[in-house]
Design brief:
CATH class: Mainly Alpha
Number of helices: 4
Radius of gyration: 12 Å
CATH architecture: Orthogonal Bundle
Structural class: mainly alpha
Number of strands: 2
Distance between the termini: 21 Å
Shape: globular
CATH superfamily: Winged helix-like DNA-binding domain superfamily/Winged helix DNA-binding domain
Helix content: 55-70%
Largest sheet: 2 strands, antiparallel
Number of domains: 1
Order of helices and strands: HHHEEH
Length: about 80
C-alpha cells in the first residue's frame, strides 16, 4: 500500500485523486500507491462497481467519475475534522 498504515479508504482516495483530470494509466496508479497489480485490480473492482472511476478505451486511461469526485471532496472534508 501507500504507507504501512494506510487504510483502504486512504488508498481508494489516492487512486481517485490520481485519476482526476486527464486520466491516468494503471501503471501510474501502481507507482503512486505502491500496490501490486493484483491489489490494484481489487481496488479498481470496488471503484468500478460503485461507478467512482471510468475507463476510456480510446486512451486506455482511468478517470474519476463525477460521483468519484464528489466522494473525494467528502473524504477531504472528513480529514479536516480528524487532523
Amino acid at each position: 500500500m501507500v504507507h504501512n498504515n494506510a487504510t483502504v479508504t486512504d488508498t481508494l482516495a489516492i487512486i481517485l485523486a490520481s485519476a482526476t483530470g486527464k486520466g491516468v494509466s494503471d501503471k501510474e496508479i501502481m507507482s503512486r500507491t505502491h500496490l501490486s497489480y493484483n491489489y490494484l485490480l481489487r481496488y479498481l473492482t470496488v471503484l468500478f462497481q460503485n461507478v467512482l472511476i471510468e475507463y476510456d478505451e480510446s486512451t486506455n486511461l482511468l478517470t474519476t467519475s463525477e460521483k468519484g469526485k464528489r466522494l473525494l471532496v467528502t473524504c477531504k472534508e472528513i480529514r479536516k475534522f480528524i487532523h
